[in-house]
Amino acid sequence: MGKVIVLISITPDCFAESQHVIIDPEFFEFAHSLLSVSEVVLFGRTTFELFQERWPERLRDKESPDWVKKMAQSLHDIQKIVFSSTLSETTWNNSEIVNELEFKKIKSLKDNTEGALLTFGSLTVVESLIEMDLVDDYYFNIQPLIAGNGDARFFNKRVLAEPKKLEYVDHHHLNSGAHIIHYRRAEVELS
User: Fold this and answer.
1) Which pTM does this prediction carry?
2) Domain count, the chain
3) Has residue 191 been placed in a domain?
4) Tens digit of pLDDT for each residue in 121-131?
5) Owning domain of residue 158
6) Strands 79-83 and 95-98
7) 78 Cα distance to chain centroid
8) Is residue 70 part of a domain?
9) Which residues of 16-55 are buried (b: 16+ CB within 10 A; e: fewer)?
10) How far apart are CA 136 and CA 134, in angstroms?
11) Considering the domain boundaries, does residue 14 fall inside one?
12) DSSP string, the chain
């Protein structure tokens, strides 16, 4: 049985936008370590379109550094599912469009895979997965920046019926100043 892993890059003031993320070889190596244990990457439309626009080109670009090409190749090869009711076609290798994120679909994927189902960002997808209690592992990539403003704030539009207790697992301090904290879903229920 697989599990659902989310990687959320976030500022201490809860903005989760790509322009606030420090992208360097060390972060890519960490992200690649999550990809290497995953069978499927789950996307929302916005993140998918951003990745689809950038990553295939990076794979073809002879000037791309090896650490970028490694990530681009892994993203090219892995199965990708984008949840979107408006996207009608994709040009990215191994990509599938699913109109609606449903509990049964994700549960079936979890039950029938050995590897993980991974998300990068895709806040709407992550929030839905959390609400459905399907996330097993959380990696919060906390950026050394108070953004002060932005369009995408984690859990800005959705309210959970009850808190989700997490259990600390580990952390990774990156040379950039970012700090990745790994939590897993706690087995103990909140009282």
Assistant:
1) 0.91
2) 1
3) no
4) 888 899 999 99
5) 4-185
6) parallel
7) 14
8) yes
9) bbeebbbeeeebbebbbebbeebbbbbbbbebbbebbeeb
10) 6
11) yes
12) ---EEEEEEE-TT-B--GGGS---HHHHHHHHHHHTTEEEEEEEHHHHHHHHHHHHHHHH-TTS-HHHHHHHHHHHHSEEEEE-SS-----STTEEEESS--HHHHHHHHHT-SSEEEEES-HHHHHHHHHTT---EEEEEE-S------S-BTTSS---SS---EEEEEEEE-TTS-EEEEEEE-SSPP-
- CA 95 – CA 66 distance, rounded (Å): 24
Say how many C-beta atoms besides its own lie within 10 A of residue 73's C-beta: 14
Residue 24 β-bridge partners: none
Q: What would the two tokens of residue 156 be?
A: 């800005």
Section 69-91 average pLDDT: 95
Q: Are 91 and 117 in contact (CB under 8 A)?
A: no
- Could you tell me which residue, 81 or 18, shows the higher pLDDT? 81
How many angstroms from the chain centroid is the CA of residue 44? Answer: 10
Read off the amino acid at residue 176: S
**Phi and psi (nearest 5°) for 98?**
-120, 130
- Closest C-alpha to 180, from 155, 154, 143: 143
Phi, psi of 94 (to 5 degrees): 55, 35
CATH number at residue 164: 3.40.430.10
CA torsion, points 60, 62, 63, 66, in degrees to nearest 10?
Answer: 80
190 inside domain: no
